[in-house]
């Protein structure tokens, strides 16, 4: 993402030179002990800080893959659960965080996406500074300085923007995941409903066939019973009548 208006200062050079030593605190923390590293990775707010793999590994985005790998190995040893038996559960969580960061940065595609975030953060920060200067000029205060004129505050502004962009990416990812889960749930419910309907139709057909046969059998039984009843009644009527003798012709 690019903006047309940028401040024309010495800061308008390559991105790598701008972001060098952006996180002074992290540099001091790079020599923390095992326990301190675990606390750093699990500190309040770490969910958002740990979205940035460079933040997790405490290394500059300009670092090579080999430098990133070396840093990953150092930190993974420090927080490995086997090295922190008295704090094994938290150490495992910290180890998993470091491992995810390395997996992200060792892959060319995902590392490029992370670097794009840094690039966009610098561009947005520069645009924000340009807008501040523009506003001052309109107010006839162009001679006044802005906080970002201080190199450290400028670096911090970029750092804050980087964290915001990673957080925005994570929110979008969660929204897409939720949408995908809801869609899969909807499809699954539709499949279950269709399967239940199919079973219901089969059960109805089965019951209908069985009941039809029962109705046929009942009708046959009824017909058979009616026929026997007529025959029996006829026989009874014949038993109750006086039957004349058969006529015999006289013999001469």
User: CATH first level of one domain: which class?
Assistant: Mainly Alpha
CATH topology name of one domain:
Helix Hairpins
CATH architecture of one domain: Orthogonal Bundle
Strand content: under 5%
Major β-sheet, in short?
Answer: none
Number of helices: 9
Q: What is the approximate shape?
A: elongated
Radius of gyration, rounded? 44 Å
Low-confidence stretches are: 1-6, 11-16, 18-25
Q: Summarize the amount of helix as a percent range.
A: over 70%
Quantity of strands, as a count: 0
Mean pLDDT: 81
Distance between the termini: 141 Å
Give me the secondary-structure category: mainly alpha
InterPro entries: DnaJ_domain, DNAJC8, J_dom_sf
Pfam family, one: DnaJ
GO cellular component, one term: nucleus
Protein name: DnaJ subfamily C member 8
Tell me about this structure:
The protein has 252 residues and is mainly α. Among the domains are: 18-106, Helix Hairpins, CATH 1.10.287; 110-189, no CATH class. 73% of the residues lie in helices and 0% in strands. The chain has helices at 15-19, 24-29, 34-41, 46-49, 53-57, 65-79, 88-106, 108-138, 151-240. Helix 8 crosses helix 9. The model is unreliable at 1-6, 11-16 and 18-25 (pLDDT under 50).
What descriptors fit this protein?
DNAJC8; about 75% helix; mainly alpha; J_dom_sf; about 250 residues; Helix Hairpins
Element layout with pairings:
Elements: H1 15-19, H2 24-29, H3 34-41, H4 46-49, H5 53-57, H6 65-79, H7 88-106, H8 108-138, H9 151-240
Helix pairs in contact: 3-7, 6-7, 8-9
């Amino acid at each position: 993402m690019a903006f047309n208006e940028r401040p024309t200062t010495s800061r308008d050079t390559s991105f790598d030179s701008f972001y060098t030593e952006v996180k002074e605190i992290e540099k001091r923390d790079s020599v923390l002990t095992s326990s301190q590293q675990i606390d750093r990775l699990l500190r309040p707010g770490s969910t958002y800080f740990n979205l940035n793999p460079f933040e997790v590994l405490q290394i500059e985005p300009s670092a090579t893959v080999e430098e990133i790998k070396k840093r990953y190995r150092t930190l993974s040893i420090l927080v490995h659960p086997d090295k922190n038996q008295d704090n094994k559960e938290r150490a495992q969580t910290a180890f998993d965080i470091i491992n995810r960061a390395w997996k992200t940065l060792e892959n060319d595609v995902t590392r490029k996406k992370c670097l794009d975030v840094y690039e966009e953060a610098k561009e947005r920060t520069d645009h924000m500074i340009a807008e501040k200067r523009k506003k001052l000029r309109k107010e006839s205060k162009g001679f006044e300085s802005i906080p970002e004129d201080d190199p450290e505050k400028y670096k911090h502004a970029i750092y804050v923007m980087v964290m915001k962009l990673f957080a925005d990416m994570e929110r979008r990812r969660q929204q897409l995941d939720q949408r995908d889960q809801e869609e899969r749930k909807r499809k699954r419910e539709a499949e279950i409903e269709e399967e239940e309907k199919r079973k219901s139709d089969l059960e109805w057909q089965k019951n209908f066939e069985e009941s039809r046969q029962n109705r046929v059998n009942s009708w046959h039984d009824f017909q058979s019973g009616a026929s026997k009843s007529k025959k029996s009644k006829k026989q009874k009527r014949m038993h109750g009548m006086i039957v004349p003798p058969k006529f015999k012709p006289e013999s001469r």
